[in-house]
Amino acid sequence: MNYCHQHNLVEPGSADVERRFGIRVTLPAGDTMRKILGNDWERLHWYGSESKRDLAFSEMATRHGYYRTTDSPTQVLEKLLR
């Protein structure tokens, strides 16, 4: 498989690895971003191991420094296994 964009979420070296461990990102009910993204918006991220998924989960759950102090980011993170 050819990769032509640097922003692809899958690294070419691990493209054939089975990914059974995932994270579903959704918005809570009543979130104003639903007006823009839609009520059924979700983003799925898949990982080859439980430890990689758990590390990514903790990083996603951490409030990063790009938010203003008055911002209250809302997202619902859910661990998945397929």
What does this structure look like?
With 82 residues, this protein is α+β, with helices and mostly antiparallel strands. The protein has one domain (16-81). 20% of the residues lie in helices and 22% in strands. The protein has helices spanning 34-37, 50-61, and strands at 21-26, 42-47, 76-81. The chain has a 3-stranded antiparallel sheet with strand order 2-1-3, covered by helices on one side. It is globular.
SSE diagram, text form:
Blueprint: E1 21-26, H1 34-37, E2 42-47, H2 50-61, E3 76-81
Antiparallel strand pairs: 1-2, 1-3
Which features does this protein show?
about 80 residues; alpha+beta; three-stranded antiparallel β-sheet
Mean pLDDT: 86
Largest sheet, in brief, is: 3 strands, antiparallel
Number of structurally distinct domains: 1
Per DSSP, the total helix count is 2
* Order of helical and strand elements: EHEHE
Poorly predicted tracts of residues:
none
Can you count the beta strands? 3
Assembly annotation: single chain
Globular, elongated, flat, extended or rod-shaped: what is the shape? globular
Distance between the termini: 24 Å
Share in helix:
10-25%
Strand order, main sheet: write it out. Answer: 2-1-3
Range of strand content: 15-25%
Structural class estimated from helices and strands:
alpha+beta
Radius of gyration: 15 Å
Give a nutshell description of this structure.
With 82 residues, the chain is an alpha+beta fold.
